[in-house]
Design brief:
The protein has 397 residues and is mostly helical. The protein has 15 helices and two strands. It has a single domain, classed as Cytochrome C Oxidase, Chain A. The protein has a two-stranded antiparallel sheet with strand order 1-2. α7 packs antiparallel against α9, α8 packs parallel to α10 and α9 runs antiparallel to α10. It is globular and about 55 Å long.
């Protein structure tokens, strides 16, 4: 799988887009969706300062949440799987027509939520994930030359959770079903892919290899662990929503921790400032899962350790890995940089600032504003930092 996104070992000369730019972008849709996701993230957090400045006529909690998970998180899931999925199955890459459809659905989703058309926004989001899922499944069944890694089952689980969560939240709801739908959408969309994709990519981010199974028995064992992790994560959502809140959180945290410990070789062979960001993201994410179960009455604030420090920072770090690899400068990912450390600091600051109201309620308004500005500045800096890598190509590709 030498052509998996960002897996080059050497530094190659990069170049700009070719004349067949749309076909090139369709083959590597992360270049579009990573940038769009970061922009939607800035829009999503900016709603809070605008609201507190009396510039909005509505309370932005639902709009903010949907933009951050569907327009921001969904864009990174779409960009990564749309690029990596066909390659891992040695199947044809996405076509320009597919790219335009996915782009239109993603944009319609974000705009609808921004206009407070939640039902329409969720509908476009469901269509977006279904379109991506069908595209990937069709390629695997029709064109594959080799089976995708077993861990990718968790990535598909994330797509199914996102679809199911959006569907549930647009039906008649009682308190339990509402919580179940929220968990499927807000955590189920991202947590399984983090585990599945992470177990495949994190070793490469530490300077090692993908750790592909060498035998059929190893493949079966990895598949069994992926299936078990997926079932337990979904079960934890059901347990938390309908039965024992703390048990659900604890089960999810334990499953995530054990799966990563078993599947990933954490021996660091190369390390840079972004590697430090990876460990901060994983630490904050697991802390968010664990503490939200302990402080379940304040779980919304505490869970932002997971959403901002875990999912958010992790998407920027993994996105950086892909951008460096595909622009022909893989060594740049492992560089040590004060600016990168500053960016990681901003992510940690935004996460902890947003979580603080759980313990100090009087800081709710000010910390909403501070966290929003901090995260918005970080995403803007990230876009500026990678501006050339979004359009540079690895000469070997």
């Amino acid at each position: 799988m030498s052509d998996f996104p960002a897996c080059k070992h050497k530094k190659h000369q990069a170049r700009g887009p070719r004349r067949d730019g749309l076909r090139w972008l369709a083959a590597e849709p992360y270049r579009v969706f990573f940038a769009l996701g970061a922009l939607w993230s800035i829009i999503g957090v900016s709603l809070w300062p605008l609201f507190y400045a009396l510039k909005l006529s509505f309370y932005p909690n639902i709009v903010h949440a949907r933009l951050m998970i569907e327009a921001f998180g969904g864009a990174f899931v779409l960009g990564f799987l749309g690029t990596a999925g066909p390659r891992m199955a040695s199947a044809p890459k996405l076509t320009p027509a597919e790219l335009l459809v996915l782009l239109a659905l993603h944009t319609a989703c974000g705009v609808s939520h921004l206009l407070q058309k939640t039902v329409w926004g969720d509908g476009f989001f469901i269509a977006l994930l279904v379109a991506l899922l069908l595209s990937l499944v069709f390629r695997v069944l029709r064109f594959r030359k080799e089976a995708p890694p077993p861990q990718m089952l968790l990535a598909l689980t994330g797509l199914l959770c996102g679809i199911a969560g959006a569907v549930v939240l647009n039906t008649e709801l009682d308190a339990e079903r509402f919580r179940f739908g929220n968990l499927l959408l807000y955590q189920g969309l991202l947590l399984p892919p983090v585990l599945g994709i992470g177990s495949f990519v994190f070793p490469r981010m530490l300077g090692g290899d993908f750790g592909d199974p060498k035998t059929a028995a190893q493949s079966r064992a990895k598949l069994l662990r992926a299936v078990l992790a997926a079932l337990l994560i979904v079960a934890s959502f059901f347990i938390e929503a309908y039965s024992y809140t703390r048990v659900g959180y604890a089960l999810r945290a334990v499953v995530a921790l054990l799966y990563l410990l078993i599947e990933v070789n954490w021996r660091t062979q190369q390390a840079g400032s972004l590697t430090t960001g990876l460990f901060w993201a994983l630490g904050l994410g697991l802390a968010g899962l664990g503490l939200a179960g302990v402080y379940d009455l304040q779980h919304v604030s505490v869970e932002h350790l997971l959403y901002i420090g875990g999912f958010g920072l992790l998407m920027l770090v993994v996105g950086s890995r892909v951008l460096f690899g595909h622009s022909g400068d893989l060594d740049g990912f492992f560089a040590k940089s004060r600016w990168v450390r500053f960016g990681v600091f901003l992510a940690v600051l935004a996460a902890t600032t947003r979580a603080t109201p759980a313990w100090v309620p009087s800081t709710t308004v000010s910390h909403h504003i501070y966290a929003a500005w901090t995260w918005g500045v970080l995403c803007l800096l990230w876009l500026v930092w990678h501006r050339r890598r979004f359009v540079k190509r690895d000469e070997e590709e």
